[in-house]
Amino acid sequence: MESRNPVFGRSEQFARGGYATFDTRTPTADDLQGMYDSPAARSRNTDRMTIDDVVVRTASLFAVLLVAAAAVFALIEPNDPILMPVTFGGAIVGLVLSLVISFSKKIRPALMFVYAAAEGLFVGGISLVFNSVYDGIVMQAVLGTLGAFVSMLALYKFNVVRATPKFTRVLMIAGVGYMAFAVINLLVSVITGNNAYNSPLGWLIAAFGVALASFFLILDFDFVEQGIRNGLPQEFAWTAAFGLLVTLVWLYVEILRLLAILRGDD
């Protein structure tokens, strides 16, 4: 199955049977003895991506995002005029950088850290706004995001849900449709003031967004697994970490919006 995730989709290395090329001839007795006598290979010896590499790099990007978000939360008041420029500025910079990183032929860790910082400003800003209206909603959204991540990882690990070609195709069609709806809804809300999320079915739309973002984690897990299986160089752990960060930020925002709708009558 070829990758459909925008982060991984342009990289043949994350396709099944992708990067590594092996000698398929039958080994001789001397070959087997040499392999037996050689020391056990580790990630630093093979220079191939491991799950530990992905975890460490994902954690480092998240640390930058959390520091930036915490700074917004601690240093800016909800009614501060600078809040909106910081929030939307972070969103715009994050969007531009995500496109540059996704379509670049080179792996750019430095840009990924800048992206994480920009997204931190955006996440911190919208979290501050929502929390000023619904006290405690940010902690609920964080716990909801963590719960969704763990649940999807368990479903993937125990083969309850797999990234089959059909599953991937349906999910990508739904994702494109939802993104198109989000853009149209934003334009309509700016022009007319009507927002679909404020309608009686708003909670259902938001719940669909949460489910969609959650299922995209299955694709992320599959792409990471295939990358490791294909013997990718360690540097591709940055690409895997970036993909996970993008999906988790999306998931958090969707959960935050759903909780706000459900608490709208508080």
Automatic annotation (TrEMBL):
The chain crosses the membrane at residues 54-76, 82-103, 110-131, 137-158, 170-191, 203-224, 236-253. It comes from the Bacteria. The keyword Zinc does not apply. Pfam families: BaxI_1. InterPro entries: BaxI_1-like. Keywords: Membrane, Transmembrane, Transmembrane helix. PANTHER family: CONSERVED TRANSMEMBRANE PROTEIN-RELATED. This is Bax inhibitor-1/YccA family protein.
